[in-house]
C-alpha cells in the first residue's frame, strides 16, 4: 500500500497492510536541509523543501508542512516573532494586547496575507508539497488554534484571567481569532492540504478540563465543521501533546479526526473511547529517547504500545516533535522498530 492508501483504508473502517508510521517532523526538516528553523520558516520554497526532504528521508505515512507551527497567525495579528541563528524555533516575543484590560474585539482587524506576515507563505508552501507528493501521501498544513492564538495576543495569565473573571471578553477575542482561523483554514484547504489546529496552550495542566470544554471545543469545532463541509481534503484535527486522557470526550465533541496519545497518557482509556468512532489514535513515544538513541527504553515503549494497540484498525505509530539535533539514523532505526512491532498489532 502507498501511504495515502493506508489512511484511506482506516477512514473506510478497513485494516491497512500495516499501522502507519507518523513521526512529528517540523524543525527537524530544516536540519535535513542544513538550514536553521528560522531561515526555513520565512521562505515558502524552503518550507516546502523541508517537508519533502523529510518524506524522502523517512517515507513516513503523513507529511506536515510547517516549521514555526504555533506562531504564524499570532504574528499576523501583531505579535513580534523572535528569529534565531541556531537550532531554536522562532518564538513569540511580545503580546500586543497584554495588560489589565482586555481589548475591544472590534478594534482587532482580521489580517490578510501580505507583507509582514506569513499567512500566504504557508499556504504557498503547502500547495507546493501537495503538488509534489500529494498523490502518494496525505499532506497537512499547520496553524495555531483559536485558543492558542488568543493566548499569544493577551499573554497566558491575562487570557486565563479573562476566561475566569470576564468570560465575555475572552469569548470576544476568541471570535476574532476563530475568524482568522476560518480564513486560513480555507486558504490551506483550497490548496489540497489537510488542516492541523495546534492548541498547545490548552493542554492539561495549563488549563482545567472545564475551560477546555468552554473556550476550546466550540471554536475548534467551528473550524473543523467548515473544512469538512467545503473540502474533501485529509480530515482536520486538533493537535496537542501532554496527557490528553481527560480531554478525550472533548476531542470527540470537537470532531477531531485524530488524537495524539503521548507516552504519559492512558492509552487503554483513549482506545476504549475511540472504539467505533471516526478518530485515529496516534500512539507516541518520547522523542528525547530517539534523540539519545536509548534503544532499550525505546524497545520497551514500542513493545508496550504494540500490546496495547493489538487489534486496533485505527492506530498509527508516532512520537513527539523530532528535535533538530536528532540523527537521521536514529529516526530510521525507530521506524524499523515500529514496523517490526507492527506485525503483532
How would you describe this structure to a colleague?
This protein is of the alpha/beta class. It has one domain (3-342): TIM Barrel. 49% of the residues lie in helices and 13% in strands. The protein is built from 16 helices and ten strands. The protein has helices spanning 3-11, 27-33, 37-41, 44-58, 72-76, 119-133, 146-154, 156-165, 167-190, 209-215, 217-230, 248-254, 267-274, 287-292, 295-308, 328-342; strands at 21-24, 62-65, 81-82, 91-92, 138-144, 194-198, 237-239, 258-261, 280-285, 315-321. The strands form three sheets. Strands 1-10-9-8 form a four-stranded parallel β-sheet. The chain has a four-stranded parallel β-sheet with strand order 2-5-6-7. Helix 7 (146-154) crosses helix 9 (167-190). The model has no long low-confidence stretch (mean pLDDT 97).
Number of strands: 10
CATH topology: TIM Barrel
Straight-line distance between termini: 17 Å
How many domains comprise the coordinates? Answer: 1
Biggest pleated sheet: 4 strands, parallel
Stretches with pLDDT under 50, minimum 5 residues: none
Question: Structural class of the secondary structure composition?
Answer: alpha/beta
- The CATH first-level class comes to Alpha Beta
Identify the CATH architecture.
Answer: Alpha-Beta Barrel
**Count of separate DSSP helical elements:** 16
Q: Tell me the series of helices and strands, N- to C-terminal.
A: HEHHHEHEEHEHHHEHHEHEHEHHEH
Amount of beta strand: 5-15%
Shape: globular
Average pLDDT number: 97
